């Protein structure tokens, strides 16, 4: 079966009906509709249009009544049709509170019926086996998947081509091997997602492999993870190293002053434990941790001038690595200079700290499948003249919306205090109450935490906070949606 897109006019007309569920809509078409029912809490209308009953959802709150007549104009067809209200007439035209149509929000079709599978194999110009097509997911309904095809040589003004397939005709593709791997999971596909189709079997019911475009987009991240995971390390070893080598560097006149000054600046910008007890200092430390460097650079490029990058930890790490490389290159040509091994060790620790910070940035990227945004970072600080670090994860519930979104948050902290086992703590705030959970693998550490929960409650109340539940458990906390790794299939377990 050899087909070259674009398809014939008859099949194209059939495919174009997919997006509107058989309503035969066209861009800028004006059409009459009648309100059958309204669901105010959901901003959803049930209307009758072209002898079909459909649901429309408003993008903003809307007040319409049953039996009200609407005149709509089609403003968008894909991925779901959208309508502009031209007129909204009440049953009695003289009603004084008739809505003002210019301020009406757009209405979006939310129940697209899945049409029958178009007969690809009946067209004389069929796909050749192995041929690939780029497509966009339009709808996923039960075992039906509707795709908008992207023909390579579409004529000007040609309507988009659409194709509906049964999920039994599709297999997923393993992004690590580029080979068919498993039965397609429809739940993994979302409207708007870019995919690549490849014809595997050109029978009466064609079989396709389907590869989400996100797999290709994730490839640079996979490559970065492969490089960074083996060398990552906490920033604490680097800071302790700089403290130890500073006297040697200062005494060596052959070492560049730029490197000495940069090392001093890095050590001076690290907060101590007392500073982290102050909310303002803690916020400043998180802001300058390097986690948001690229976001700040984008804001600067956009014209925001009140940002300062001077003390950003990632920026200083990059400068330090550059200066250490220059110093090593210089000393390699002068065998009389004696700090070569110290500089090499410092460079290795700086690269490990930068790798760890970059991994935290990757894991802090938004995840489409999670309703929460999480930021992960390892925050260095000084304690008793030595560098240490605390692991912090901040979660924001994106699903809350409005004022509720400001109130629902959680912070996870991992730290190993002197004389105690590692402690995991999660502090969450919901509806004004602060809830606290602790975990530790060591039973004696859990007992000590339980003995001091009353003191913690007093401290919360002293600072004007309402203490909710408090508890300590032996073990480790369960992994949350926000803390799941960005790439979950970096290793192929089937090898």
What does this structure look like?
This protein has helices at residues 9-15, 213-228, 235-251, 257-269, 273-276, 279-287, 293-301, 313-332, 340-363, 402-407, 443-451, 453-462, and strands at 30-39, 44-49, 52-58, 69-76, 82-89, 107-109, 132-141, 144-149, 161-166, 170-173, 180-183, 194-201, 207-212, 372-383, 386-397, 409-415, 423-430, 433-440, 466-474. With 495 residues, the chain is an alpha+beta fold. The chain folds into four domains: 20-109, OB fold (Dihydrolipoamide Acetyltransferase, E2P) (Beta Barrel); 120-214, Beta Barrel (OB fold (Dihydrolipoamide Acetyltransferase, E2P)); 229-368, no CATH class; 400-483, Transcription Regulator spoIIAA (2-Layer Sandwich), CATH 3.30.750. The protein has a seven-stranded mixed sheet. Strand 16 (409-415) and strand 17 (423-430) form a beta hairpin. Helix 3 (235-251) crosses helix 4 (257-269). The two termini are 35 Å apart. Mean pLDDT is 76; it is low at 1-19, 112-125, 175-181, 401-405 and 488-495.
List keywords for this structure.
disordered N terminus; 495 residues; extended; OB fold (Dihydrolipoamide Acetyltransferase, E2P); alpha+beta; 4 domains
Any idea what the radius of gyration is?
A: 30 Å
What average pLDDT do the residues reach? 76
For the biggest sheet, the summary is: 7 strands, mixed
Alpha-beta content class: alpha+beta
Counted beta strands? 19
Please give the domain count. 4
Strand order of the largest sheet: 9-8-7-12-13-10-11
**Overall form:** extended
Low-confidence segments, given as residue ranges, are 1-19, 112-125, 175-181, 401-405, 488-495
Q: Name the helicity range.
A: 25-40%
Distance between the termini: 35 Å
| Individual helix count | 12
> What percentage of amino acids are in beta strands?
25-35%
């Amino acid at each position: 079966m050899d087909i070259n897109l674009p398809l014939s006019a008859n099949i194209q007309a059939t495919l174009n009906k997919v997006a509107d569920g058989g309503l035969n809509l066209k861009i800028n078409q004006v059409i009459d509709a009648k309100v059958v029912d309204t669901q105010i809490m959901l901003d959803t209308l049930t209307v009758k249009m072209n002898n079909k009953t459909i649901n429309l959802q408003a993008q903003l709150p809307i007040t319409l009544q049953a039996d009200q007549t609407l005149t709509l104009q089609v403003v968008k067809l894909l991925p779901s049709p959208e309508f502009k209200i031209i007129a909204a007439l009440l049953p009695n035209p003289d009603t004084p509170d008739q809505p003002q149509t210019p301020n009406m929000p757009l209405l979006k079709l939310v129940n697209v019926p899945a049409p029958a599978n178009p007969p690809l194999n009946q067209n004389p110009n069929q796909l050749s086996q192995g041929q690939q097509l780029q497509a966009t997911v339009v709808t996923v309904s039960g075992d039906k998947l509707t795709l908008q095809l992207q023909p390579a040589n579409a004529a000007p003004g040609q309507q988009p081509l659409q194709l509906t397939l049964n999920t039994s005709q599709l297999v997923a593709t393993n992004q690590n091997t580029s080979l068919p791997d498993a039965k397609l999971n429809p739940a993994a596909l979302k409207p708007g997602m870019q995919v690549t189709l490849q014809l595997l079997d050109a029978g009466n019911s064609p079989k396709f492999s389907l590869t989400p475009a996100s797999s290709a987009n994730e490839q640079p991240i996979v490559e970065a993870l492969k490089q960074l995971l083996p060398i990552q390390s906490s920033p604490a070893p680097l800071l302790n190293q700089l403290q130890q080598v500073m006297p040697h560097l200062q005494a060596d006149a052959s070492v560049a002053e730029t490197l000495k000054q940069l090392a001093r600046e890095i050590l001076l910008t690290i907060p101590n434990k007392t500073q982290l007890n102050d909310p303002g200092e803690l916020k400043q430390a998180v802001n300058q941790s390097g986690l948001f460097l690229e976001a700040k650079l984008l804001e600067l490029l956009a014209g925001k001038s009140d940002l300062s990058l001077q003390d950003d930890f990632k920026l200083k790490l990059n400068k330090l690595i550059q200066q250490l490389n220059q110093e090593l290159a210089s000393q390699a040509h002068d065998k009389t200079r004696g700090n070569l091994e110290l500089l090499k060790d410092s460079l290795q620790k700086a690269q490990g700290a930068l790798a760890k910070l970059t991994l935290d940035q990757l894991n802090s990227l938004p995840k489409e499948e999670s309703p929460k945004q999480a930021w992960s970072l390892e925050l260095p600080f000084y304690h008793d003249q030595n560098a240490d670090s605390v692991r912090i994860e901040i979660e924001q519930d994106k699903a809350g919306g409005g004022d509720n979104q400001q109130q629902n948050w959680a912070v996870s902290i991992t730290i190993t205090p002197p004389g105690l086992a590692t402690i995991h703590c999660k502090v969450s705030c919901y509806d004004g109450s602060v809830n606290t959970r602790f975990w530790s693998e060591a039973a004696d550490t859990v007992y000590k935490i339980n003995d001091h929960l009353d003191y913690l409650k007093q401290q919360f109340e002293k600072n004007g906070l309402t203490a909710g539940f408090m508890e300590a458990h032996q073990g480790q906390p369960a992994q949350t949606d926000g803390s799941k790794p960005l790439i979950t299939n970096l290793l192929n377990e089937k090898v």
